[in-house]
Amino acid sequence: MNIENGTIAVQYARSVITDEALFTRKSYDVRLPASFDEPVGVFVTINTYPGLALRGCIGFPEPEYPLRDALEHSARSACHDPRFLDIQDYELRDIVVEVTILTPPKPIAVKNKEDLLNAIKLGRDGLMLEYRGRRSVFLPQVPGDWGWDVKEYLENLCQKAGVGRDKWKDKDCEISSFRGQIFKETSPDGDIVEVEE
Predict the structure, then answer these.
(1) What CA–CA distance (Å, rounded) separates 196 from 79?
(2) How far apart are CA 160 and CA 154, in angstroms?
(3) Which CA distances in Å does 108 have to 35, 175, 184?
(4) For 55-104, what is each residue's pLDDT tens digit?
(5) Could you write out the three-class secondary structure of 133-184?
(6) Domains, the chain, ranges and CATH?
(7) Strand-by-strand arrangement of the 180-185 sheet
(8) What is the overall mean pLDDT for the chain?
(9) Which of 22, 43, 55, 67 has a C-alpha 20 to 30 A away from that of 183?
(10) CB 102 within 8 A of CB 126
């Protein structure tokens, strides 16, 4: 995605978040490029500003819906992330919005599970875990935000799924990777930039 469409994606997510906080539906009037009709995985992240603490993050790791629909649903849902209180209208000037466009997840092929430690590149690879009906996802930027190494990344992915921290080693545990293209506001409702890997 180019920076122009990335900018539109973030602006649209911001308008949906504003709608949700103000109980309006003005974002339905926004005209989006035809490319937003293509299915793509996407996450919308809301961070506080200037502290950049996580305030909400919801999305679709797989290309299930057209980008326009996935963006809208993710942005609305991020306002009600169950880990936090709902976003309120007075917060709109104290948050920054980030949109991550995802490539489709692909299982990481390794001969044995310990090889995952060398197959995963921090900062590039987002991860999705599927294990006995449990599932969890981390975006590529998460381990850098927390200062994790690859083993800690896998352990926390297991923990997020509600399974033992070492279940990534289990033969029944499937780990898939994906990449993310990140566009974000530099300040509340301010300039939008693409984050380089």
Answers:
(1) 26
(2) 10
(3) 29, 6, 28
(4) 999 999 999 999 999 999 999 999 999 999 999 999 999 999 999 999 99
(5) CEEEEECCCHHHHHCCCHHHHHHHHHHHHCCCCCHHHCCCCEEEEECEEEEE
(6) 3-103+180-195 (3.30.700.20), 106-178 (3.30.1490.150)
(7) 54-60, 41-48, 95-102, 180-185, 192-195
(8) 94
(9) 22
(10) yes
Task: Report the run of H or E that residue 56 belongs to, with start and end.
Answer: strand 54-60
Asked if 67 contacts 38 with a C-beta cutoff of 8 angstroms, the reply is yes
Task: Report the C-alpha gap between 95 and 55 in whole angstroms.
Answer: 8
116 Cβ contact partners less than 8 Å away, ≥ 6 residues apart: 108, 110, 150, 154, 168, 175
Q: Which residue has the tokens 């001969």?
A: 111
The two three-digit tokens of residue 95, written as one number: 């948050």
Q: Which residue has the tokens 């005209």?
A: 31
pTM (2 d.p.): 0.89
Nearest CA-CA partner of 144 in 119, 169, 126: 126
| β-bridge pairing 95-102 and 41-48 | antiparallel
Question: Concatenated DSSP letters for 42-54?
Answer: EEEEEEETTT--E
